[in-house]
Design goal:
Layout: E1 2-7, H1 10-18, E2 22-25, H2 29-41, E3 45-51, H3 52-57, H4 59-68, E4 73-77, H5 89-98
Parallel strand pairs: 1-2, 1-3, 3-4
Family: Belongs to the V-ATPase F subunit family.
Pfam families: ATP-synt_F
Protein name: ATP synthase subunit F
Length: about 100
């Protein structure tokens, strides 16, 4: 099983290539859609890594893939600018999920 990166910047792509992860750099809605379709059609790919920017800018594409495909697993990762999430996002997520304040 392989990982595949879809990034919006060359720095993240270069870092992941050094770690042995194949990938592509895309910038537009259509490029992202095409890259996702190619990655999904490759049965060797079990995990798709996406920079968080795509989750913010094109949530409809990401959600569609997550809803209609069991594999691959899609994981949003921070890019070179860091994460766009709040510092306590994990605690907030758990609070929402179980309905208890930690």
């Amino acid at each position: 099983m392989q990982m595949f990166l879809i990034s919006d910047n060359i720095d993240t792509y270069t870092g992941m290539r050094l770690a042995g992860v194949e990938g592509v750099v895309v910038h537009t809605h259509d490029e992202l859609k095409d890259a996702l379709q190619k990655a999904i059609s490759n049965k060797e790919i079990g995990i798709i890594l996406l920079t968080e920017k795509f989750g913010r800018e094109f949530p409809e594409i990401i959600d569609d893939v997550k809803l209609h495909h069991k594999t691959p697993l899609i994981i949003e990762i921070p890019d070179r600018h860091g994460t766009g999430r709040k510092p306590d996002f994990i605690t907030s997520y758990v609070n929402e999920a179980i309905g208890l304040k930690l």
